[in-house]
Amino acid sequence: MKILILGVNGFIGNKLVKKIMQSTGWEVYGIDLSCSKLSHSIDNPRFHFIEGDITIHKEWVDYHVKKCDVIIPLVAIATPAHYIKEPLQVFELGFEENLRIVRLCVKYGKRILFPSTSEVYGMNSDPEFSEDTSNFVFGPVRKQRWIYACAKQLLDRVIWAYGTEGKLDFTIFRPFNWIGPKLDDIDAAKEGSSRVVTQFIINIVMNEPIRLVDGGMQKRCFTYIEDGIDCLMKIIENKKGLCRGEIFNIGNPHNECSMRDLAEILLALYRNHSGSEAYSVSASEIIEVSSDEYYGEGYQDISTRKPSIKKAQKLLGWVPLVGLESALEKTLDFFIEESRTKGLLCA
Ligand code: UGA
Q: Which CATH architecture has domain 2-179+225-254+305-321?
């Protein structure tokens, strides 16, 4: 099988290639702006990488959609701070470029695995979100946070429509707060614009305050990247064609945690970090900030976001295995090492 991954150097892309190289005989064609996270696979003869930009290297993309069997377009800006600061960039890259890819898959009759997002459920208050019955609840237009979710929602609907007209073989998947090594760029976290787990870790490592937005009672279910990748592998395998035309939540409902608890757990893990004499004490304190102050007026939050994973369990036989503390510890270990290399670690 030949797989095309656009945005192959990203958090999900690099881990997926690694797994494919380790456990299958499949070939992967990949494009990204850099190969900084791909050292594990770059020399493998079954991995074909080019450094490039999908908005510029359109002929390469067209040719490889035609050549490959399964297309996985992972290019998008996925950090809430950017939804408010750069909403048009989020739309142009996340929506317009991906629409082009969807249409190429239709044109060449290729199977697409499309990454939707847990964000599409928005401020829905269901105790668990179901792929097939939960409503999508977004705020007003002036709340620019929703541009990412809206763009993903519309693409989900376009893909669905092509599917129901018999023009596209697709599976949509919705990651729920996947975490792990290489989650976000450490420089983005230094500027204060990365996703929460990386943000808190870098704050702790740099002895800066951990800033809890609006009190920190909002909850997320954190999913370890390797669990997510295992589910994706089953979707790519697509045994008995069961994934065709389906949408899957991929998350860990047992790893629910408030942002305040997350901050406490990370601080405790950091203080107990094995062999960490030199940095066993972090002076980070937990402070509260308003969302207006932290993100700007275009922000609106989600208070709970828990996936129902019954479908993935039933059709794919998949369940997540990594618990919250273990997932956070593995992520923390990686960023401590990365911070040490970059000279950020405060003694
Ligand atoms: C994320 C992103 O939109 C996407 O990566 C993705 O689609 C989706 O969720 C997902 O991974 O499932 P969100 O969970 O809101 O959205 O993003 P985070 O930046 O990780 O924020 C989580 C919570 O922490 C929010 O309530 C935020 O206000 C809070 N936060 C964030 C803080 O309290 N302090 C910080 O320093 C940063």
A: 3-Layer(aba) Sandwich (3.40)
